[in-house]
Amino acid sequence: MVTSRLDDLAAIEDAVWRELGRAVNDTEHGWRVGVLATTDGRGAHARSIVLREFDPATRTLVFFTDARSPKAAQIEAHPQGSLVLWSDALGWQLRLRVSLSLETAGLAVSSRWARLKMTPAAHDYLSPLPPGSPVAAPHGLPTSTPARASRDFFAVAAAEIDAVDWLELHALGHRRARFDADGRRWLTP
Q1: Of the four listed, 45, 112, 130, 147, which is most buried by Cβ atoms within 10 Å?
Q2: Reported pTM
C-alpha cells in the first residue's frame, strides 16, 4: 500500500500497477469492486464488477460474467469500455479506458470454472434464467443445487487497459495525471 504522497509521475504509475495487483487478491481493497461502463450502441450501461486477476505484463484485468447477460452482448458488439475504481484508503480514483473481450469456451474458461464451481459464487452462473429476467418474487440462494459440472453460462471477460486517468483527492490539493501510449503527463484536476 502506498503510505506517502508520491510526486514523480513514473512512481505514481508504478504504484497504480502495484495497487491493481493487490486489488485482485485483497477483498478489502477499494479497487476490488469497480464500475464498468459499456454501450449497446444506443446508450451507456454501468454496473459493478469484481476484479479477479491482473496481468501486469499485458495490463489486463479479468472478471467473470454470465454469458447470457446484456453486459456480455455489449462487450461482443462494442468492445470498448470504461472502468472506474475508487480507493478511499489511497484517496485515488482511476478511470481506465479498456478494450474488452469475452471467452465462453476453452482452457481459460474451464480452468477458472474448476476453481470457482464449488464456491457460493458459482450460483451466479448456474441460474436457469438469464440475468435481468423478470421473476414473480425476489429470491436468495437457490433451494436446490444445479449440477456444478455445467459451466454453460460462465464467461471470462478481459479488460486490456489502454489509458489510465489517475486522480488523487488530497487535503494539500488534488492532482490528476494520464498514463497512455503517448506517455505520462500531469492534467488539471
Answers
A1: 112
A2: 0.92
Query: What are φ and ψ of residue 21, in 5° steps?
Result: -65, -40
Tens-place pLDDT, residues 73-125: 999 999 999 999 999 999 999 999 999 999 999 999 999 999 999 988 888 88
CB 112 within 8 A of CB 91: no
3-state secondary structure 41-80: CCCEEEEEEECCEEECCCCEEEEEEECCCHHHHHHHHCCE
Answer yes or no: are the C-beta atoms of 156 and 109 closer than 8 Å: yes
Residue 64, CA distances (Å) to 38, 51, 86, 141, 158 in order: 15, 8, 20, 19, 9
Pairwise CA distance, residues 141 & 139, whole Å: 7
